Amino acid sequence: MAKIHKFQDDITEEVANSLKESIAIDTEATGLQIPERDKLSLIQICDQNGNVYIIQPDRKSYKAPNIVSILENEKILKIGHYLRFDKSALEYFLKCKMKPIFCTRTASRLCRTYSSEHGLKSLVQEFCGKKIDKRYGSSDWNKDINELSDKQLEYAANDVIFLHKIKSELEKMLKRENRMDLYKN
Known about the structure:
The chain is α/β, with parallel strands linked by helices.
């Protein structure tokens, strides 16, 4: 398991400055009805070296200037699985615009036409040879970050730790199948 670094409110400027080229990103929320009912509870980031940063934003102000600087940095690719939800939650709560992005679910649907399984669990199994436990997805993510169990933290980390490898493999397939332009569109 990767080393998990926990932060309250925001990452440090030092961590933000260390993130180059690409990050894997995911979020946890209290539900899927954002912003009507639910709140952004956690932000998970993984760098290219496998360092995982789990951030619990301040749910009153959602001020996170160091995270925003990364999300808005057009030189840093943001990789996520089914990014539509995460992107909209991050942009709404952090008041930013997140780009550029690479969605592994969208890429999978375009090039893995031999399968109807495009979930993260299936992609991790196929491209990384690992089985991930998705049982802790329905959790109380609003507990203090230091009260989250090791299993909850592992679940949150698993949502980002494999994304760089999966993106790399999907890009090879998109190129091989002449679908990269379709993906970019």
